[in-house]
Amino acid sequence: MISQFKTLKEECYEANIQLNNLGLVIYTFGNVSAVDRGRGVFAIKPSGVPYEDLKPEDIVILDFENNVVEGKMRPSSDTKTHAYLYKNWEDIGGIAHTHATYSVAWAQAQRDIPIFGTTHADHLTADIPCAPPMKDELIAGNYEHNTGIQILDCFKEKQISHTEVQMVLLGNHGPFTWGENAAKAVYNSKVLEEVAKMAFLTRQINPEAPRLKDSLIKKHYERKHGKDAYYGQK
Ligand SMILES: [Zn+2]
Fold first, then answer.
1. Alpha carbon of 1 to ligand 1 centroid (Å)
2. Which of 8, 49, 64, 197 is the most interior residue, by most CB within 10 Å?
3. CA of 112 to the centre of ligand 1 (A)
4. Which pTM was predicted?
């Protein structure tokens, strides 16, 4: 029988494979999901399946209340975090989660990643936020759901927009990224990992390295994303 969610499962599958191809995950670390807003469902990697064994038909389809709509396998253990973010941020189309080394290092150090250079400014104008580690009662409760709450609370507290900053580090844990679709969420995971690596090396070479000045932040962001953007081909 052909699944009515074939395209969505394939989008999710391709994005998960891409996460692996980009060197962002080893073993079964990490997961990507893709949403279908029209049907109120999202597709996510099954739990504990190595990338080399993963097939498009293994992808699990759920609604935003975490009910399995289609699929025989158990969904990723982080599914409730994805559902919470989709439910609350209605304009996002894909979410990725990895344990990539440099991103995790900043998360474990519980530090925002400062904007040090134009690579960072090409993608976003703010420091990459690190949400505080979760409190014991949130860990003991509905942990993965509460992980979503922790991320949203961080954005509310720091007054940042999830459409401008499509990535976060969760203290002691690691990065979550999102975008208009699953491929963009994966792209943002790779950008985050590279920026995290560059920022780490910058601090190593010069612990006092200054934040990028506003004029360069503005220039680099706007030539790529501003109303008169001229980066790339028309
Ligand atoms: Zn994780």
1. 34
2. 8
3. 18
4. 0.95
Cα(84) to centroid(ligand 1), Å? 15
Judged against a pLDDT cut of 80, whether residue 234 lies above it is answered with no
Kindly report the CATH number assigned to the domain that includes residue 33: 3.40.225.10
Choose the catalytic residue: 112, 122, 143, 153: 122
**Cα separation of 51 and 232, whole Å?**
33
* 137: confidence class by pLDDT, cuts 50, 70, 90: very high
Residue type, 83: A
How many domains does one find in the chain? 1
Task: Judge whether 223 and 216 are in contact, CB under 8 Å.
Answer: no
Find the 48 Cα to ligand 1 centroid distance in Å: 12
Does the active-site annotation cover 231? yes
In this prediction, residues 60-81 reach a mean pLDDT of 97
Distance (Å, whole) CA 84 – CA 33: 12
How far is the C-alpha of 63 from the C-alpha of 65, rounded, in Å? 5
Percentage of the chain lying above the pLDDT 70 cut:
100
Classify residue 233: in a domain, yes or no. no
The number of C-alpha atoms within 13 Å of 40 and in the hemisphere containing its C-beta is 6
Residue 137: domain span = 6-225
Structure tokens at 217: 């932040």
Residue 231 lies in a domain: no
Q: For residue range 1-40, what is the model confidence (pLDDT) as tens digits?
A: 678 999 999 999 999 999 999 999 988 889 999 999 999 9
Is 1 part of a structural domain of the chain? no
What is the C-alpha separation between 45 and 97, in angstroms, rounded? Answer: 11
55 three-state secondary structure: coil
